[in-house]
Write a structure and sequence with these properties.
Blueprint (H helix, E strand, L loop, with lengths): L3 E4 L2 E4 L4 E7 L3 H4 L2 E7 L6 E7 L4 E3 L7 E6 L4 E6 L8 E10 L2 E4 L3 E6 L1
Parallel strand pairs: 2-11
Antiparallel strand pairs: 1-3, 3-8, 4-5, 4-9, 5-6, 7-8, 9-10, 9-11
């Protein structure tokens, strides 16, 4: 069973930057078609933030376009989320997700990002 472990969360001021990392215990390329970052703010539903396909195509939710960048390193089994110009509304627990198909996906345990004003 592949495991995903996030790191890099923390407290940052408005306008600051953080880089989240997701380490997979096994090959990303062999196990997942799509890697993604989700986030869940207190009292809100989990939302999709960014995705990256096996071919490297990326998508972003509108609220983070131009500020966040998702990337991956298949050789190191890592996925990253570079977050710039952070805003208070970016405060949430961020989750790494790997999906192969409708029947197989894996979640990390989450890493908390707090943006203070």
């Amino acid at each position: 069973q592949v495991q995903l472990v996030e790191s890099g969360g923390g407290l940052v001021q408005v306008g600051g930057s953080l880089r989240l990392s997701c380490a997979a215990s096994n090959s990303i390329g062999d196990n997942f078609y799509t890697m993604a970052w989700y986030r869940q703010a207190p009292g809100k539903q989990r939302e999709l933030v960014a995705t990256i396909s096996s071919g490297g195509m990326t998508t972003y939710t509108d609220s983070v376009k131009g500020r966040f960048t998702i990337s991956k390193d298949n050789a190191k089994n890592m996925v990253h989320l570079q977050m710039n110009n952070l805003k208070p509304e970016d405060t949430a627990t961020y989750y790494c997700n790997g999906k192969r198909n409708a029947w197989f996906e894996v979640w990390g345990q989450g890493t908390l990002v707090t943006v203070s004003s």
